[in-house]
Amino acid sequence: MKPCAFEYLAPGSVPEVMDLLQQYGDQAKILAGGQSLVPIMNFRLARPEVLIDINGLKELAYIREEADELVIGALTRERELELAPLVRLKCPLLPEAISHIGHPTIRNRGTIGGSLAHGDPSAEIPIAIYALDGTIRTLGPDGESAFKPEEFFLTYLTTCLEPSQIVMEVTVPVLPDGTGWSFVELSRRSGDFAIVAVATVLFMDDNGACTEARICMGGVASTPVRAKAAEDILSGQILSDALVAEAGRLAVEATDPESDYHASADYRRAMTEILVRKALRRAWEKTRGGK
Amino acid sequence: MAGRRPIKVKVNGIEYEGYVEPRKLLVDFLREDLELIGTHTGCEHGVCGACTVLFNGKSVRSCLMFAVQADGADIMTIEGLSDGKTLHPIQEAFREHHGLQCGYCTPGMLLTSYELLQENPAPTEDEVKTAVSGVLCRCTGYKQIVDSVMAAADAMRK
User: Do both B99 and B118 map to the same domain?
Assistant: First the structure.
């Protein structure tokens, strides 16, 4: 299993990347961490004629806090995000989600921008960024653009990125103290792809009512999806076991799973209900001071 | 061959220079060009961990990198773990606790354990299990591997 031959280019700056993408268009692929691209090249499912290696662009790897947001460069490695004290403190949902990606060795190479651009519907980073209502900033020949997750992911392994655009940066809001969050995942073995994964965020007011709930699910449709109906019945309410159970039932309606050799569609629906309830309970517990 | 590119790479402290086709995987460069055959080729798609090496100090799957990407890098393979005379404490612990049977996954197990113990000299059993879960062993059932890494951690702290 060896990849097809390709031309290898390692530009030294972002403008050079832009020029090369203009020149080669959809013949070229960007090589970031390579943890998804290289396997599919080894299988010859992907046969790019040109590989543009951006690993030399250290200026794309950073984690900063600006106002009430974390600003993360596209080339930031998953392992770095997982361990960074700033991220663990300000946006703990993200490291928790990342801890489910493959194994530490995979996370040493995999990047946040690469995972988003790859657009796997069961991948952890897209699910987490959607639950966090993050923003994906891109650069192309027409300049910078910013996308919300609901517009960025189109279908299986397909985003709205044009061949001449790259992901530059991701921003996620800092979670206020007292916010509930969780990331739960079902997979056959530790490190395997998610059969179903659920991320939740619960914003609370001083009286203990939930002002806004976000529930994002992966592995159950062609993109990560939000369980809007379930979110709506929680928002503005004092949470209860009955509400959480109802949210689990409603969440299933937002899914459109397919059967594959990992799990049937029915199994994915059944597990969605259970995982959403579990994720909500875990997030709710955090709003009550549990860690 | 057209399109071959020069690379310069340090492996186990020794500088190598070579010409590689861009599509050559790092694991194949190590085994075929440098004849360092301790790094094993397994699944070739990043699942089994047999080809794990340390790339600038961090573990990577060498089947998921191209050799051309290693230009300027500092790599450690299993051949670099001991000085060639005495076993590294991790190797000694694997020998003592029967942490291998067929040995195919062992280079990946040892380098993964090495990275873990550099970052976390006193891991819990659960932390060891999480670390080595990324390397597939079909012989041991992992019990002896976990015992070996725990024993190595003890030995290295002394």
Answer: yes
